[in-house]
């Protein structure tokens, strides 16, 4: 990046604003009138995505620093979650981004929507969890700071939850309405987004419906158009709750429909995702100081992807592919909590049943089909105990859980037009032992010590993760890699051991009112880390059916998912400064280093060090500012994976906000003010031949554009 560009960005940083992802971001009034569980500030980072103050003259409170009013809301809510300290974003398409947290991504980060966990439908994770959380419907995003508590289920790298709009109970018998909406336009991709909720509630009942519609064209960047980045998605649903005594019976349903959407880093594009969510249960007090939570849920995903509908140019008939994928997830959770919110003992059990089926076809040849994931199943059942309390002035949360996971796969069927190589691999897989059971154990200790304005804190944890169904049962050599999108061909491994992470974190929270600072240093030692390794010891020598098939598809050195030893360490922080009335300066900084412990190499796709700086003037009903995001170059790359380094960059944006009337606000801004060309290190690589982005180059960030958004709540 040119020096003058970086210089301009640094100069503007003193006038730039990006809301701090502060632990106290959730609106106080919302907490007081909602009976649903809320995040603990010392243990959770909360990004308040959609909030409209009741009055145009009401100033933004000091604990509302996470509102992303200075950015155009991305269609992919993962990009918002990535703004927490330690967060980063895998750019795999307009609706397919993945969250990286302190260097770990994919299934190592537990993603949920409205507290519901589920398996993705696509074999290449085109639908990570937040694919089903349109930004215009997201009320807040909660991210467990560093390590997720055992009560949230198994998770190696952390946990994140997107909470969509829901109407709340009131304190009177009369019915009240709750209307919310968000509408936005972005010029850089000529996109629009509309979303809202309509609800009725009183002290006993709450009923609401939500809906959203989003559509965008290919985005522009300095130098042309990134072809294949258009998107289209609809979501609608309903929710209800009945409050009896001190508890609530609740039920919700949503339908998400993603229409043709380009995915430039992948071999195939989305034709559709048709997904149904349903969950219900009970939460409340069943006796004095005894809380019960019961939740049952099911998610059904139906998916088609191909290289004909959106791909430009389309693949020739002999290379045409259409892949059908189904995924069903059923979950059940039960927990009992004894004591007060800040001093309790909790026990619970949960189960998760996943059934996936993936079939690859050629739309021009009915005799060509392969069941690449034939009825693969995972059945997990777990139990946990968690104790929150204090020893003198030292507060702590101590928990442990155990999970037993059984994984199995059916025998794959292949069509008569499939060549003998894949047919032989299918027969070998059918003859193998395709069932395994593994037990994992997690333990977490999080402790903190309030000392006036400063609170030292420490975390020690042991976390485990069982291999995914793809990593274990991917018998056919393909580019499916759960979103790595690196062009390598991978094959599964029936003998994978669970990943085991030993984690230590130390930091402090300082808050004097006018200044806050929250740094954290962390270390993760991971035994049996799962990543791509050479298929065999004769690298480059094609002496196996897997290597022959991979070579015919352009990769003579396929990778096998294997266990290695790794470590990650780093530091991240956020801060906020209010030097004078109405002026706020804030920022985040993140650094992580990932290394192999069993080889002289770096881990793959580790985000570079990055910095956010911000400042804003906040007036009565009117605010304005600018924002800076800068990333260092990344030269600590994986030689084994032939990962290329990336250059540093800095981008600046402007924003303004005006409260038009009670509950109604207009926001607008400019993104990438200087129209800088940049390629984020974690961006996927282009596979669209008709694009202005060269083949296999990293996708560039969007160019200069304007955006406007209208939000309301009545």
Layout of SSEs?
Layout: H1 3-13, H2 28-33, E1 44-48, H3 78-81, E2 87-90, E3 98-101, E4 109-113, E5 138-144, E6 158-164, E7 176-186, E8 191-201, E9 205-216, E10 220-221, E11 224-225, E12 231-244, E13 247-258, E14 269-287, E15 290-306, E16 322-340, E17 343-362, E18 365-391, E19 394-408, H4 420-431, E20 435-448, E21 454-465, H5 469-473, E22 490-491, E23 499-511, E24 515-534, H6 545-552, E25 559-577, E26 583-596, E27 610-618, E28 622-631, E29 649-661, E30 664-671, E31 705-713
Parallel strand pairs: 4-6, 22-25
Antiparallel strand pairs: 1-5, 2-3, 5-6, 7-8, 7-31, 8-9, 9-12, 10-11, 12-13, 13-14, 14-15, 15-16, 16-17, 17-18, 18-19, 19-20, 20-21, 21-23, 23-24, 24-25, 25-26, 26-27, 27-28, 28-29, 29-30, 30-31
